[in-house]
From TrEMBL:
This is Fatty acid amide hydrolase 2b. Residues 121-563 form the Amidase domain. It comes from the Eukaryota. Residues 27-52 are annotated as: Disordered. PROSITE patterns: AMIDASES (PS00571). It comes from Gasterosteus aculeatus aculeatus (three-spined stickleback). InterPro entries: Amidase_CS, Amidase_dom, AS_sf, FAAH2. It holds the Pfam family Amidase. SUPFAM superfamilies: Amidase signature (AS) enzymes.
Amino acid sequence: MQTLHIVCFSPVSPTCLNMPGRSLSLGFPRTARRRRSVRSDPQAEPPPSGADMALTRLEKVQVWLLKAATGVLFALFRLLSPGGGAPAGRRKLPPVSSPLLLMSATRLANKIRRKEVSSVEVVRAYIHRIQEVNPFLNAVTKDRFDAALQEAKQVDVLIEEETGGEAVLEDRLPLLGVPLSVKESFALQGMPFTCGVVSRKGVVATVDAPPVALLKRAGAIPMGVTNTSELCMWCESNNHLHGITNNPYDFDRIPGGSSGGEGSILGGAGAVIGVGSDIGGSIRMPCFFNGIFGHKTTPGVVSIENQFPVCSGRQAEFCSSGPMCRYAEDLLPMLRIMAGPNAGMLSLNTKVDLKKLRFFTIPHDGGSPMTSPVSKELMAVQRKVAQRLEADLGVTVQEVHFPEFRYGFQIWDTYMGLPDKEGKLPTPFVELMGEPGKSTWPFWELLKRMVGKSDHTVAAIGLALLEKAHVTEPSAFIIQQKERLQKNMDELLGTDGVFLYPSHPRVAPKHHHPLFRPADCAYTGIINMLGLPVTQCPLGLGEEGLPLGVQVGAGKLQDHLTLEVALYLEKTFGGWRDPGAN
């Protein structure tokens, strides 16, 4: 049996839509040559996107089938699922009132070490903010405020008793006394470890996931754990154990997934730094929708152990853990800590001169029939980034087009279901739904859901049903497209190339609307399949008051390049914006 995956934004999901059936590869060959063109007039209209390009008859049939299937799922969602949104009344988060909430983790750590502010004061400020905003966001599913305050008191005593001076503390404990939020799919000792699965209620982590342990060892103080989608398999953080999470800029919008709780509490200023994982966009989509920074590392650098679900098949090749934060200057020190002994794989201590880099912009995927066309405001802001780079740095930003990007969703879907070196396929999704017991029967769950008795979301049930329905073999054509794109991108980027690529075709969708276009995750998922590092960068707010942004990618192990560009973009475009002030 081969495996089918439909759509997932899971960080460490074996499920990530891997379904025992076969790989849903909707690929179809079309002759196309790679095209590169130097940007000309920045005001010129961009090349036509998906909706404007002619489709073959086979493509039209497959698009119709996809739309029909997703339409049915969306109708079920609307019929059987409770709506999202915050409690009736207030429709906007209160603005940030404490100046401590407007400082980066790096700056807070400096102030704590210098005794300009105590760790207790900082932790109390964040406790107050979480209590203020979480009723509207439902982002933090379990706090550890009492323990955090005790740890903060210990930090303040340690600083008072330290005889080696500030430099010693900075070297040993660079994040000493700084609050930290943790995605609930990461093991945090003594905290729930459920990944939104009702049958895992009561499961408590007995150890820390390695990235969490390293951050704690660096002095960070965990405040609690945050919500995810059920089994980390969807771009909306919703499950029947913890409920649905809202976007801090608009409560009727999604915060993304599967690290949506992290994105929401960070965007709402209830946290300053956090951790996420990404196998199809689970760091980048929440960061984009919530107006914060996030970094998907080169795979194999930051540990993905002690997370749930566990990667299976070849998924570990595409999954990354990484930092999420409101301020760009926190990305590099967090990554250095989270990478632990593997930090030496990256050139994080190398000074980057942006003027010596080669820049490229890829405005869209070339017109995939599976994805929505990129919105005009997102294409415009990406052009603006290119213009500013050229004007400020004196570089040339070259526009490039690779036709293989058109098959981004099919590539992601196919590779998520490939077996490992021993020939073992990814864990079936129905098995994960029943964890830690027997596999789930999706048809039975659908019947139960119709009378409000199922423990699973309609999205999860629908995906389990699709798992049973598809039996196509992986497409040799799609494998070829991926290999060609990998070769082209590796050659293009080398060790000094940086590219811009849309984070998503549109700004944060309304609750449940991703079912209309489930393949839009291809804009993030394809980067996972290429194994490239990429930083999600906010670029201000758009017409609807929602965050805009762009992905900044580079060659393998060149993470330091994208982190430096993130610092530039924060300075140029303003970075994170207080959702209570807009």
